[in-house]
């Protein structure tokens, strides 16, 4: 681990200290105040849309000239319509219940003390993410609604766009009589700023990395601030002996091809040997027809040959890879135990699906697979805050501490115990 | 950070891998199986009591000869009666509800998918703690009940005792047909074993340090496994202008002197200037009479002189110190804002108490103090899993992620989302 430029540390700590001061004020806002502010932020973004789009065009032109692939350029691009959509997302967050102040549990003790566990904001939340300007606005909005100050370190490719967005949001906060330091963008220091953020113990309460496996790995290993790991999804679909094969086909195709670039897309297909001959030729032909590059083990390779589709030999590296593209590893397994063992070896703990009409097999899958989401007869694509009805998503946790699976507003809070008495002593 | 002896890493990883295999079996046990095992463990400890006490005497004699202070010798010592008490604690844990399988929330989505968030064990939990043999048995029992395998790294001063205890517990597990690797003691590698434990990512799901500030600081800074910080308590009692002064006196004395060596004991007394003349001479005299060494600011020092009790000048270092002995820092503050600012500067985020009959002051304290527990008119000593009615306590979290305040069985679990459908795709 190389040392961090001390000037960058000073810069980030200074931002964090101001964010902490703002966070104390945010923690005490009523829901009505926060919702009004979210609407004001949304309005300001729409009013400032032209400036945002213009700043974004600078980013897009520079990055395209620098050779950024079109998939990433698309994620980077903001149009007037997309700015309107992110503004609308802020209004949608305003419509969600306020997690702050919720009484999680409580009781009156034998001695008359009343105790209650109440949701309160985390304080200062750092987000480290890639060049996706919509994440900037989402994180700011979810942070504000949950009473947290946020410190954003977005990918530098979106630098001008993020500055334009955060400039507008901070001005709108000030106009609302709220502290601008509720929403902070790290504009200096490059990667060292991210590293200073994740080591700002006592100033930052939580860091959430959102991005590829290497970004998340760096944050997890170097951070001394508590971290929530998100988003690496090496998801499997297992077609059991007891599967309805047309259901299995629909789930396999949907899980792999509906949106291959996201973490809840499937990367591996496992098929019970007893249904392989009936299922695989058709499934592999359909996957290949949808443009999926197939990495097959010996047995599934024979069915690919039967179907006359191209394939190469799968390796353990394939099995361990989150492709995030139209690629899939395929294997035939002898039984449910073999499927469970394979998943146990290669899972990233995100989403694992079984297709079966066999109740005992479904129960074993649900109980024995260790992942944020275990699915029976459903597409892996359903692991999502929006699909789960949370109304928002700040990321999908693949760790076990604090939050597991899609995270929304309550996951951005902690709790405090409030104990009230009449002079009780022990 | 110096590197860890690779042989110690191999040893710890080997233990962790065996613990992980055991954890899969533990996760599937019914409550009845776990409770029967806990009773069997308790019985075995009572049967093996003489061997434990004899091993403990070796530890005690060696440590006493080595100059261990009597307070620590007392915590290290096991008698037949104390062995019976730790065995009884296992039976008490058996009587508690099983957190595993609890459905935390759930719903049926518009598309007919049913989703439910279910409590499941963490997997493998590491505990790093000092020479307190009762923690060995408590952690083993709470781990078993919550379906987790535990890896224990206790203070080396209790080495023989811990080996005797864990040997008995593992034998009893085997006799119950359960995996002995559910309960593991690190007996080699000294401090490096602890460091290997806290960096065993992928093998260990959670590390809980229990002990002094320096142990916890080391774990938090070096660990790459998720950590829950516990137990540093720099707790304040603030006597407000609106306090009932006899209530304030009782709470001050109880918070400081009832059991000064524990984290929920008070370390600092803040008194509103308007009641200082009425309150402090009597309070300081009573504290001094109970043997409390007083560190006073200028104004409280004058009241100490009035009362004729010894005192020295308080420093910021005193204000920042968790004494864990009969010492207390004392200051007079101008108003509630000054008290809040002082607490904000020096709190360790454990427990902060106000004494007041003024509703507005109490509400501000509850809302504005950022700590695991905020108290109104109650002794700081009540922040405790037993007092809160949890029936057990694995530690008191002073961090914001996952758990805050006393931690019992549910805090040793995570959740998984179970999604069941009939072929739903997106």
From TrEMBL, chains A, B:
Domain Aldehyde dehydrogenase residues, every copy = 12-287
Q: What is its EC number?
A: 1.2.1.41
Does the record carry Oxidoreductase as a key word? yes
* Any one GO biological process: L-proline biosynthetic process
The UniProt keyword set, sorted, is: Amino-acid biosynthesis, Cytoplasm, NADP, Oxidoreductase, Proline biosynthesis
Which domain of life does the protein's organism represent?
Bacteria
Subcellular location(s): the record lists: Cytoplasm
One molecular function GO term is: glutamate-5-semialdehyde dehydrogenase activity
Instruction: Identify the SUPFAM superfamilies for this entry.
Output: ALDH-like (SSF53720)
Q: Which Gene3D superfamilies match?
A: Aldehyde Dehydrogenase, Chain A, domain 1, Aldehyde Dehydrogenase, Chain A, domain 2
Pathway listed for it is: Amino-acid biosynthesis; L-proline biosynthesis; L-glutamate 5-semialdehyde from L-glutamate: step 2/2
What this protein catalyses is: L-glutamate 5-semialdehyde + phosphate + NADP(+) = L-glutamyl 5-phosphate + NADPH + H(+)
Q: In the UniProt record, which is one GO cellular component term?
A: cytoplasm
PANTHER family, sorted? DELTA-1-PYRROLINE-5-CARBOXYLATE SYNTHASE, GLUTAMATE SEMIALDEHYDE DEHYDROGENASE
The task this protein performs is described as: Catalyzes the NADPH-dependent reduction of L-glutamate 5-phosphate into L-glutamate 5-semialdehyde and phosphate. The product spontaneously undergoes cyclization to form 1-pyrroline-5-carboxylate.
Q: Which HAMAP family match?
A: ProA
Question: Which family does the similarity line name?
Answer: Belongs to the gamma-glutamyl phosphate reductase family.
- Official protein name in the record: Gamma-glutamyl phosphate reductase
Please give the organism: Ornithinimicrobium ciconiae
């Amino acid at each position: 681990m190389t040392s961090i430029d001390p000037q960058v540390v000073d810069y980030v700590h200074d931002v964090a200290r101001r964010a902490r001061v703002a966070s104390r004020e945010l923690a005490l806002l009523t829901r009505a105040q926060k919702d009004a502010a979210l609407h004001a932020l949304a309005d300001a973004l729409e009013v400032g849309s032209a400036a945002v789009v213009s700043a974004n065009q600078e980013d897009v032109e520079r990055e395209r000239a620098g050779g950024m692939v079109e998939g990433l350029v698309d994620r980077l691009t903001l149009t007037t319509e997309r700015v309107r959509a992110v503004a609308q997302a802020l209004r949608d967050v305003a419509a969600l219940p306020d997690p702050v102040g919720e009484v999680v549990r409580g009781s009156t003790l034998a001695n008359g003390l009343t105790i209650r566990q109440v949701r309160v904001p985390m304080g200062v939340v750092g987000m480290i993410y890639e060049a996706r300007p919509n994440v900037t606005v989402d994180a700011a909005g979810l942070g504000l609604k949950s009473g947290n100050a946020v410190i954003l370190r977005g990918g530098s490719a979106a630098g001008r766009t993020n500055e334009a967005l955060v400039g507008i949001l901070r001005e709108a906060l000030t106009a609302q009589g709220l502290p601008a330091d509720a929403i902070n963008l790290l504009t200096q220091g490059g990667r060292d700023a991210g590293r200073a953020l994740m080591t700002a113990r006592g100033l930052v309460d939580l860091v959430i990395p959102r991005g590829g496996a290497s970004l998340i790995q760096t944050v997890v290993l170097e951070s001394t601030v508590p971290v929530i790991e998100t988003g690496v999804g090496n998801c499997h679909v297992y077609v059991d002996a007891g599967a309805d094969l047309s259901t299995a086909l629909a789930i396999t195709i949907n899980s792999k091809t509906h949106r291959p670039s996201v973490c809840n897309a499937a990367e591996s297909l496992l098929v019970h040997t007893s249904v392989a001959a009936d299922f695989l030729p058709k499934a592999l032909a359909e996957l290949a027809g949808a443009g999926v590059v197939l990495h097959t083990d010996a047995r599934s390779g024979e069915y690919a040959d039967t179907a006359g589709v191209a394939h190469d030999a799968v390796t353990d590296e394939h099995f361990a890879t989150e492709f995030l593209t139209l690629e899939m590893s395929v294997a035939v397994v002898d039984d449910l135990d073999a499927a469970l063992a394979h998943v146990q070896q290669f899972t990233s703990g995100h989403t694992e699906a079984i297709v079966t009409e066999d109740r005992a097999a479904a129960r074993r899958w649900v109980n024995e697979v260790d992942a944020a989401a275990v699915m029976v007869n459903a597409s892996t694509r359903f692991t999502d805050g929006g699909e789960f009805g949370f109304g928002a998503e700040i990321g999908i946790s693949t760790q076990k501490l604090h939050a597991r699976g899609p995270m929304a507003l309550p996951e951005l809070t902690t709790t405090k115990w409030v104990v009230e008495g009449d002079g009780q002593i022990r």
